[in-house]
Amino acid sequence: MAEFRLETPRLLMRSWRDEDLAPFHAICSDPEVMATLGPVMSRDEVAALIERMRGIEAEHGHCFWALVLRQTDQLIGWCGVIRGSAGPVEGKAEFGWRIARAAWGQGYVTEAARAAIDWFLVHHDDPSVWAITTVGNRRSRAVMERLGMQYRPDLDFDHPRLAADDPLSPHVTYELPRRDWSPA
Fold it and tell me: Which of 64, 92, 122, 177 would staple 78 via disulfide (CB 3.0–4.6 Å)?
């Protein structure tokens, strides 16, 4: 399969490469980055996660792609879409992102997610796109709102892969109906 590439003015979302392991592990082992996402990850766990993304991309034609600064070719995280596997987004178009702390606050996630949603809605006929996060993940919730996603309190849920007493278990769900999307 040819490498996927989706460009924005500052960013590139692309298929995962072997050389992405070290920089993505640095992101996934940063306690601040992972504070609302789960425990820091070992190199082997990140390698398995990248392989999972490669498998999802091979099966569906999309995944949480490697997110790279176009000007420097530096990997700064991931962004994209998978078929959700938990709670109210199971089987639905779930958008997600993870970004290096040094790249926070620069609008990269909103820029990338907007382009990914545009791409997805052109290539798929889903009636809505979705995103989930922990209740306290203010940064991701702000991105969801900037994208025009609507908080669905009726779809709040405890993540089934987390212990009931895990502070990250309570999750919120956001939806963006196709009819409400304004392409960039």
Answer: 64
DSSP code string of 47-95: HHHHHHHHHHHHHHS--EEEEEETTT--EEEEEEEEE--SGGGTTSEEE
- pTM check: above 0.90: yes
Q: Report the distance separating Cα 11 and Cα 33, nearest Å.
A: 20
pLDDT at 83 over 80: yes
pLDDT tens by residue, 138-163: 999 999 999 999 999 999 999 998 99
- pLDDT score recorded for residue 182: 84
**CATH code of the domain containing 61:** 3.40.630.30
With a CB cutoff of 8 Å and minimum separation 6, the contacts of 119 are 6
Question: What total of structural domains would you count in the chain?
Answer: 1
